[in-house]
Automatic annotation (TrEMBL):
GO terms for molecular function: prephenate dehydratase activity. Pathway: Amino-acid biosynthesis; L-phenylalanine biosynthesis; phenylpyruvate from prephenate: step 1/1. This is Prephenate dehydratase. It is an enzyme of class 4 (lyase). Its EC number is 4.2.1.51. It comes from Cryobacterium gelidum. It catalyses: prephenate + H(+) = 3-phenylpyruvate + CO2 + H2O. The lineage of its organism: Bacteria, Bacillati, Actinomycetota, Actinomycetes, Micrococcales.
Amino acid sequence: MPDAPNPTPTQTYSYLGPAGTFTEAALAQVPGARGQIWRPVNNVGEAFADVASGRSMAAMIAIENSVDGGVTATQDALASVPNLRIIGEYLVPVNFVLVARPGTTLDDVRVINAHPVAYGQCRNWLERTLPSHGHIPASSNVAAASALLETDQADAAIAPPGIDKHHDLVVLASEIGDNPNAVTRFVLVARTAELIAPTGADKTSLIIELPSDRSGALLDMLEQFATRGVNLSLIQSRPIGDSLGRYRFVVDADGHILDERVADALLGLRRFSPKVIFLGSYPRADKRRIEFTSRYDDGIFIEARDWLRGLIAGEPTE
Ligand SMILES: O=C(O)C(=O)Cc1ccccc1
């Protein structure tokens, strides 16, 4: 029997384009995105605007890399666009090549096109090999390379390996990243309020503002997690922007909002923070199950709450 025809695409996924970016490789990991419409965009703002307006069902965005840390444009956009939720995370190993128009040699390179996140991951190689180069920021790794064929403002570009197969460019140097095991973490962001069911290997992302001018506010924030046995895998401060000295924290916590210890930590945060943004609980890319001692088991929290309710209700105690 012939295969049934593919169903008509109904969902649009935005991603940092053009085709061939690491972001596209991350989107290729999403089973539900296969056969759907993939919309290349030029920056994080455009991707989020697509999701906020309903033009796209979801957007794939780089959020963190193992060499250069958080992608601040993404973190700031997540704090400012309301009603967005992270619905999945995906890891892509990243490696870079330096490409140029045919006929260019490494000695000819003065100015380099590069996406800022890629540039930040090749810093050592660039300082060693091309100490007096200039940098023109590009909107993506592939855009950096293809711009070489449109203008001669730059002599070379930092790009993903394999780019020379699709463009008339030559590779001047390979493996120029500062860490051969570099990995970028991408998140799929959608406009939904629905919770994703816990898997036992989950992560919860939050943005937490601290009350200003209060000593110990950061410690207060950390204690909410520590006293409930919730481990953090990312904590990064970003300026709120309205005045000096005001910061929000981007935090990834092990566990799911439906885990009692995580829910209890959120209650604690809400009591002292002027603003807690819940960005979502979603399955971890590495599928690593969360370890915690029995002291922080769901049952212990439920039993303690029932005990308190009993006291308030005047139930007899043993
Ligand atoms: O997706 C890409 O290729 C990008 O241009 C963004 C990026 C930059 C550096 C590492 C991972 C993603």
